[in-house]
Amino acid sequence: MRKLGDGDPLGVPPGVQQGNIGAYRLLGRLGTGGMGHVYLARSERGRTVAVKLVREELAALEEFRERFRQEVESARRVGGYWTAPVLDADTEAPVPWVATGYVAGPSLQQIVGHDHGALPERSVRTLAAGLAHALQDIHAAGIIHRDLKPSNVLVTIDGPRVIDFGIARALETVTDGGVTRTGALVGSPGFMAPEQVRGDRVTPACDVFCLGSVLVYAATGKLPFGAANSGVHALMFRIAQEEPDLEGVPEGVADLVRDCLRKDPAARPGLAEVLERTGAQDTVTGGRSRDPWLPSALVAQLGRHAVRLLDTENPEDAGAAGSAGQAGQAGQAGAAGQAG
């Protein structure tokens, strides 16, 4: 996380009162994505939040604003324990913004790709249960995530939390010569479903496929259809036509993962079945794991990160919350929908 500077892009953007967005006091910048900047902030009552501030050029487009309003309203309806809730928003401000609950933990991408490596089967089972619960809550609000990936899963001592659902779809409306500004598809190539690759109608089963891909990454540190080193189109072909590489996936979850990665959306398990097959009734309850679900080294890391966050009481101290897992925290726009 960066300390606040005198202006955009290192600090407070033009048009925003120095040090504040709405009623939120800025502490530092978490990251930047396709839709705008993400800031760590505190409410007047002391709640720590993540505030996404939309880029000015997007805010100037009425078609974007209209979709942004709709997606914020949809995201507000998402309940449950397993997502970062939308707490506040001003979609009519000169520069629109949305505030979500801040999750004080690194992304799954940071954990697996940098800090620790592949997770043990116990952790993968709890991860699967938490993500399935989160997707149930998201789908109940009429939203399909479409972009479930390791950088959109934050890891806490209690369990995983899903961010970036719904609002990123507002970018679909931003066109340039008939082509969407962010590309023809919403999703990240390595974690897309075959129907996304083909441009077919997307249903909630799309998120089940993405869930399977995330579980493979968590268990092995690899993507089930390989990386994009050979080109995005080759990767998309493998997703649409070839079988996943499940080498290294623990035997106890391999069949479930394989079923989630079926090419035919109708052949994939529903989320209730995923929960049953992960033994969720015995592993998670009330938004938290019943027993410790992470290796002890990761638990210690998360504890140190939480302490640093508590020490971040004003902008001058903002850097203190930094290194423990803030890479990937650009996604901390949460339901605010950080794209990319």
TrEMBL record:
ATP binds at K52. One of its GO terms (molecular function) is protein serine/threonine kinase activity. This is Serine/threonine protein kinase. Residues 318-340 have a biased composition (Low complexity). Residues 51-78 form a coiled coil. Pfam families: Pkinase. Residues 314-340 are annotated as: Disordered. Keywords: ATP-binding, Coiled coil, Kinase, Nucleotide-binding, Serine/threonine-protein kinase, Transferase. It comes from Streptomyces coelicoflavus. Gene3D superfamilies: Phosphorylase Kinase, domain 1, Transferase(Phosphotransferase) domain 1. SUPFAM superfamilies: Protein kinase-like (PK-like). InterPro entries: Kinase-like_dom_sf, Prot_kinase_dom, Protein_kinase_ATP_BS, Ser/Thr_kinase_AS. Residues 24-294 form the Protein kinase domain.
